[in-house]
Amino acid sequence: MSRHLEVREVLRRITASARRLLGAEYAALGVPDDHGGFAQFVVDGVTDEQWRAIGPLPRQHGVLAAMLHETGPIRLDDVRRAPAFGGWPEAHPELGAFLGMPIVDADHDEDEDEDGPEVLGVIYLADKRGGGGFTDHDEELLRILAAHAALALTNARLYERSRELTLAGERARIAHDLHDAVSQKLFSLRLTAKAAAKLVDRDPARARAELAEVARLAAEAADELRAVVVELRPAALEEDGLSATLASQVQVLDRAHNADIAFAADRVRALPQAQEAALLRVAQEALHNALRHSGAGRVTVTLAGTPERGAVLRVSDNGRGFDPGAVRRAGRHLGLASMRDRAAAVGGRLTLDSSPGTGTIVEMEVPGA
User: Fold this and answer.
1) Degrees (nearest 5) of the Cα angle 351, 352, 358?
2) Most buried residue, 226, 289, 294, 362, by CB count within 10 Å?
């Protein structure tokens, strides 16, 4: 559970693990919202077709609601006989034996919170395989699993919050780039066009030269705008996968910039979503640096699988290069800290090789599943 950093994936792992550990036919995990429903509700043991037939996510009522106000387990021989039982949709499977366990905030401090610990979610199990009810041993196993689940879920929430803050920082950087690169070119274009207009009658040759400069500046501004659009465009990782998404972005950047940008992939397996997202963002940051700061004429992006089921991303350019130590001392980071943080967050490793006049190589390796 702790290897995954997306909340949704952690919830799925908890649910599947609980069902397998206790030998249950059905398992579910509900995360409450503040409006009488569930922000997320994950099931295991029910097919996609059955789940669609059941209908909308359940509301907080009946036994589900009762569990959200408990800090201990509820074990029932038959959930249908519970006083709080309120029925279920027509397509819902008939359930009997029931065991529910809250996932309680692992960092709760009873001295600071008089209302008691926060219930992060509740694990619901139903129907033991082979018949019979859930036992004391089952309850203890689920209690241990819930304690681990609380840590994993808290870590995943913190990671997603950190990612939101990182995305906010990236939006600010893109806005800064837009102002610096595009608005300055548009300002120069405007002044040059005014100069050309004044020269048309008295010096047509100079006016033509100024108009040629207008065309050049307009083309550069268009290139910069296209590059910003590429960075703002959401990457279709879930639909297309990392290799296809990288190939598409490289293709667009190759059209938008004068530099020759190439991409190659070799024996890349599907990776955990968090690792693919981190690799994509590091590739984007490295490409941004190469195209905006290095003056490179060629940039190469490669993605290769490793024998350990991981992957290695490599972004290299033939630009002017730089002294990483001097960059740090000058207080400029070129996104290097962000790239290292992304790699570390998914158990990966990032290295950078650059010096003045030799170009730059950024390499990131992730362990895979």
Assistant:
1) 150
2) 362
| Distance in angstroms (rounded) separating the CA atoms of residues 53 and 70 | 30
For the record, the structure tokens of 180 come out as 């610096």
DSSP state of 94: P
Phi-psi region of 338 (alpha: psi -120 to 50; beta: other; left: phi over 0): alpha
Q: In what order do the strands lie in the sheet with 260-266?
A: 260-266, 298-305, 311-317, 360-366, 349-354
Cα–Cα dist 85/80, whole Å: 6
| Rg of the chain (C-alpha set) | 28
Closest to 63 in 3D by CA, of 20, 14, 23, 101: 101
Q: Give residue-wise pLDDT tens across range 188-215.
A: 788 888 888 888 888 888 888 888 888 8
**Closest to 147 measured CA to CA, from 40, 14, 6, 12:** 14
What is residue 22's predicted lDDT score, i.e. its pLDDT? 94
Angle value at C-alpha 232, between 228 and 238, nearest 5 degrees: 140
